[in-house]
Amino acid sequence: MTTQRTMRPLLIAASLAILGLAGCAKKETQAEAASQTAPPQNPMEIDLDQDLRSRVKLGEAQWAQVGATLTVAARVEVDETRVTRVGSPVMGRIASLSVREGENVRAGQLLATLNSVGLSEAQLNFLKGLSQKLVTERAVVRAQQLLKADVIGSAELQRREAEMAQATAELAAARDELELLGMPAEAIEALERTRNIHSVSRVVASSSGTVLERRVTIGQVVQPADTVFEIADLSHVWLVADVPEQIAGSIVVGMAVEAQVAALGNQTFSGSLTFVSATVNPETRTVRARMELVNPTRRLKPAMLATMVLKNQTERRQVVPLTAVVREGNVEHVFVKLDDDTFVLRPVELGPEYGANRVLLEGLREGEQIIADGAFHLNNERRRRAVRGNDGE
Fold it and tell me: What is the pLDDT of residues 298-312, one digit of tens each?
């Protein structure tokens, strides 16, 4: 009897312990089942709380008139139609130089002088021609007098008149030669009046502009074919770009262009293409294109680097703001609204920039709402939550 009374509490305690263990096992089984049936959180999704809502702005892809653009490197060059190469008209030795590189000169200004044997010979031929003409003129006057006195016949007068005509032509040719050799008209008149030969030849500017290059020094012997000075009018310059062969087929004369010159604080110049080469450079596989710029203040200087943006005709396209685009794994994404509080990071295909927008090519349906501003901060918060969730597990 005593034994039964002692065993009863022990049996009750054992039963309760078994029931407790069974309950715990049931709860663990229910928890496991619940964890298996609950969908896992998508790491590309994020729920907005009140703080995040205040930091972002909703919107959607907009339709806009955009144009395809092409950005290429460019450089400032001299307008080749405004370049003058000045040479010496005769062979000679440089005696003096009157200008230096970078100086502005006007048409007819003296640039250099040189001593020339050829000029002396040309002056001597001119003086001989002048003397011969005077002789033939006197002979004609004398023949006219003799003809009147019936001393000579008319044939003799005609012969002397022919000689005078020939001497006149030879004198004119000698004068033209002096002019071609750079001798000014007043110098030729002085030579005719004084009969004094000067062997100094003048090299003068044939047009106004800036001396880009001086290729001689004092004492140097130059030939008529040599370029002594190079002068350019820099009031107009070219902006030249070498367009890659693969995209050169889309550029044409008249295409709108915007250019920025870094040395001038990225000042923008607008215009259009005035030339597109008909051939491809076989070494660089590029096509030369250019626009013309007015340069009254001479701020644009040859060899300055620039950026040229070529613009095609506009077309109606969907665009999204730059502030809506985030980059994940070298793929561009935007946050798309799923419901009132949930947004998902969706990959999209985007085209070139157009102002503060990117052209939308693929990835969004019309009317879908996106995070138009604040996507960068929202993506940082999404990453932070994903890391914290992984640490919690």
Answer: 999 999 999 998 887
Domain boundaries, the chain: 45-66+316-392, 71-79+234-313, 83-116+207-232, 121-198
3-state secondary structure of 134: helix
The residue type of 333 is H
Asked if 45-66+316-392 and 71-79+234-313 have one fold, the answer is: no
288 forms beta bridges with: 242
Residue 390 has pLDDT above 50, yes or no: yes
Are 343 and 49 a contacting pair, CB within 8 Å?
no
User: Per CATH, is 71-79+234-313 categorized as 2.40.30.170?
Assistant: yes
CATH of domain 83-116+207-232: 2.40.50.100
Rg (CA), the chain: 47
Express each pLDDT in 54-68 by its tens digit.
889 999 999 987 776
Angle at 79 between CA 75 and CA 85, to 5 degrees: 125
CATH number of this structure's domain 45-66+316-392: 2.40.420.20
Residue 282 has a pLDDT of: 93
Sign of CA dihedral 127, 129, 130, 132: positive
SS3 37: helix
Rounded to the nearest 5 degrees, what angle is found at the Cα of 51, between the Cα atoms of 50 and 52? 95
